[in-house]
Please model this.
Amino acid sequence: MADLLWDDVKCFFDADLVGSLPDVRVPNASVGEWQEVLDLVAEKGWTCQYSEGQTVLPVPRAETVLSRPADAEFPELRVWPTADVLAIFRFLAEDEVDFDVDLWELQGQDRLDVLCGFLREIGRRLGKPVLMDPEGDHGRPVLGFDVEADRVVLLANPPGS
Model:
C-alpha cells in the first residue's frame, strides 16, 4: 500500500508552487548519521557519483567530507534510487543531512512511491524524521517520514483546503 496517494499530494509537486528543487533534510543529525546514509547507499546498491567541483572521486567517509576547509571545492553526492529519480546530497552541515530532489522527475504515483521508499529507507536507518520543505522555505515541511507511523505522511494542508 502506498504511503501517500498522488491525488492527495500532487499540489506539493507543482514546481510553480513549491519550486522545482525542494529541500529534503534530517534535522539534528551527526557525522555518524551522515556515515549511516553513505553506508545505506552502498548497501542498497543505489547508483551514485561523488564529486568535488568537477572532479569525480570515490565516496569518502562522512567525517572526511564534513571536515573539508570552507574554501575547498564544493562536494556533492548524486544518488539514483531508481534510474529516473535523482537525489543530490550537498554536505552543507554536519548536523543536518540534506539533499535535493527534482520535482520534474517525481510526477505521478509510481515516482511518488519511489520518493516515499527512499525517505522511508533513510528514516528507518536513522530512526529519525526525513522532512521535505518547499524550495527555499526551510522549516516548513509539507511531507516527511514519520518514525512513529513508520511511513511517509502529509505534514501540511494542501493550498485551498
Q: What stands out?
A: The radius of gyration is 15 Å. The first strand starts at residue 23 and ends at 26.
